[in-house]
Every structure is written in structure tokens, then in C-alpha cells.
Amino acid sequence: MIRTLAEPTLTAVSGETAEFLAGGEFGYRVFSEDEGDDGDASLRTTVSFREFGVKLAFTPVVLSAGRISIKVRTSVSEISGAIDGIPTLDTNRAETTVELPSGGAFVIGGMIQESTRRNVTGFPGLQHLPILGALFSSKDFLQEETELVIIVTPYLVKPVAPKDLGRPDENLVMSSDAETYFLNRLSKVYGKAAEAPAGTSAGQVGFTFD
């Protein structure tokens, strides 16, 4: 089964770094000892944060017309447990620098993660009986193998006039009450603005469901 973790689109100036994170942060306490002027030491507590999830950072450099040198740093992490109340992470990380034409793509692969889990279930009390306990319990073994594949496609972009840009809610017409209740439709989308029937949408619309 193939699952897309994230599909970000970022824009950066040549030589500058753009970053993307789809995940979150968790906080943990850090203890440090400070010594005052009188020689007495005091314990200070601060809170630090660590990111997890799908993270991407890249730094492009335009070499010539149509050629791009791009440095990519990416990582995928998830919380796997905790030690003394502090979460631990399973992380896949990759970093590389390549040169390719505008519109060309390169793939980072080979990051394989394997995990094996054992689950024992049974009837409370009876599963611990000598010899007969095996009749009242079952054991499941689950082995997973996951490969992370990252595809990066850089493009050289040019400035455009505001009139040439489209909005997410263009050509959107809200469905009638009958279509919403009986046909389970929230909106209708038309290919061209000229073909849309009379009516306007209100508010900010980011996604369209049909």
C-alpha cells in the first residue's frame, strides 16, 4: 500500500532556505544549575520543544538559465514511546545536494524501517494455567517493513500579474438545500466562470467537495 505523507509546495529566493513541517511539537523540561555571585548554586528549570512529523528544508541556488543546485534536508519522525515522561522518536532522515534542470525530479529512497510486534491475548486467569493455559490464549506476530521515498521537483518561477492568479473559491457555487439533503452535495464546480449559473459564494473557501 502506498500512502502520501505530505505534498508541500514551497517558494524560495535563490540562496535562501525554505522550511515545511506537517506534525507538531512536544515540550520537555531542562534542568540547569546556576551559580550566583555569593557562590550559592540554584536550580533553574526551562522548557524546550522538539519537532516531530514530516519536515522538509531546501536551499536552491540558480546557476544559469534553467539550471538549479538544490540542497535538501528532510526527515520523518513519530513518537514511539517515552523515557522518564519524555517522548522518544523514531526518525528517518536524509540530506543531499544535487544539480538538475528546472522541472527535473530526483528521488531519495532506500530508507527502510522494520518492526516486529508480539501480542498475547487470552481469558483472564485461565490463560496462566500450566499446560491448559495455551487453550485459553492466542499469540499474534506482526512484522512491518516500510520504505520512505522522497520525490523533489524544483521549478524556476517568474512573477505574474495578480489578474493571472486564480483563487481557490473561483467558479464555486453552493448547492441548494435539496441537493445537500438528498444528493449529499455541498457544492458544485464549473470549469469556466462564464458557464457558472448566477450566484456567489460567501466566506473563505479552501477546499471543494462534490
Explain how this protein is built.
It is a single chain. This protein is about 5% helix and about 55% strand. The chain has a domain at about 20-35 and about 45-160. The strands form three sheets. It has a four-stranded antiparallel sheet with strand order 1-2-3-4, with no helix packed on it. A two-stranded antiparallel ribbon has the order 5-6. Strands 7-8 form a two-stranded antiparallel sheet. The chain has about 210 residues and is mainly β. A hairpin with a 2-residue loop joins β2 and β3. It has one helix spanning about 175-180, and strands spanning about 20-35, 40-65, 65-85, 85-100, 105-120, 135-150, 170-175, 185-190. It is built from one helix and eight strands. The radius of gyration is 27 Å and the shape is extended.
Shape: extended
Beta-strand residue fraction: over 45%
Q: Report the order of strands and helices.
A: EEEEEEEHE
Radius of gyration, in angstroms, nearest whole number: 27 Å
Q: What is the structural class? A: mainly beta
Low-confidence parts: 191-197, 203-210
End-to-end separation: 26 Å
Main sheet makeup: 4 strands, antiparallel
Percent in helix: under 10%
Oligomer: single chain
Mean pLDDT over the full residue set: 78
Within the largest sheet, what's the order of strands? 1-2-3-4
How many β-strand runs? 8
Counting DSSP H or I runs of 4 or more residues, the number of helices is: 1
